[in-house]
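ok trying again, last paste got cut off:
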Amino acid sequence: MTPGDPAWWIDWLSTRALPLWSTAGFDAETASFVERLALDGSPQLDVPRRLMVQARQVHAFATAARNGWLAGGEELALRAGETMIARYHARGGTEGWAFSVDRSGAVVDERRDLYAHAFVLLALSALVRIDAKPRYCELIHRTMAFLDREMAHPAGGYVEQWPVAVLPRRQNPHMHLLEAFLSLQETAGCGDFRARIATMVDLTDRHFCPADRSDLREYYDDDWTAVGEPRFEPGHHFEWVWLLTRYAGSSGIAVEDRIDRLMRTALRGVDARGRVVEHVGVDGTAAPTCRLWAAMEAAKAFATPQGRAVRPTGMSDALAAGWHAFCRPSFPGGWWDRVATTGVMLDAYIPASSLYHICTALEFVAENRCVAVQQQYSR
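nice, full thing came through this time. structure:
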């Protein structure tokens, strides 16, 4: 095996990363995940714990349990999921989920954040798959009711935060809502999410990446007018390729043109060493920095049928580049999340949030998953 082989990564996950994040990365005293580790692998217990990270870790360990990557993964996901519900849901007597708490469970930031709510829905979907408790489905529908009642925007989509709306609006939380809705649609027993999926895809077609553009803009005003520096993030283009492939598989609706535009743009952000840069300007100037999450999203995109056609070795190249740039130099089982293109590490800690990208990518690129998607996509 080599670092370009998914089996290499799965072995590393099973023997290094998941054991690290289920011990040093899990605060057994509070039954919750730590936000990050120090570079020597020790937990930084006093850093406030964001809802988004708890939800991502629940999803990651539920994914590991489903795939047989970690003994006890199911129990850990369920235990942390219960803590997440108790500590973040309906705090302060208000529906929705608080943004962050401290180690004791006291609320640090009570705002309701759209990005975090998207990951709560994804985590609850993952919990249903390993333990179909009616309570989890009830929480899914309560969360959606809160979003529809308090955070829906008249111009489409949702506001960034509640109770005080902020600008700019972003495509990123809506992208992850689509991911959550796709997962919920694939999860038996929690309802029909096809209309919500179609609404997110329509939002993309009308505002994020309409037919007359090939770049996906990140930031918007209230009425979905793009604002900010005109540049694009290749990692999100790759992520949309993966999501639209899943959408096509579940809906039977053709998306080849959309994927082709996104893929062609994303390829402009892959450097000579196979790493994915953080962003690219309209003049073609690439950022001098790379992120681990973008490497994993590239691997997923290259594992899709259109991705394989564009670059047959793309998945292996992205995995190998990700390994050498981010994981090999780090503490065993950890990673450097963000590096300069010169190879210099830019963050002095190991963030827990990257595990979600790794586990999600490896579940998709494993051969049985790729074959299943190809069969759906060709119908």
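cool. Residues 370-374 have pLDDT under 50 and may be disordered. Residues 45 and 147 are 31 Å apart (CA to CA).
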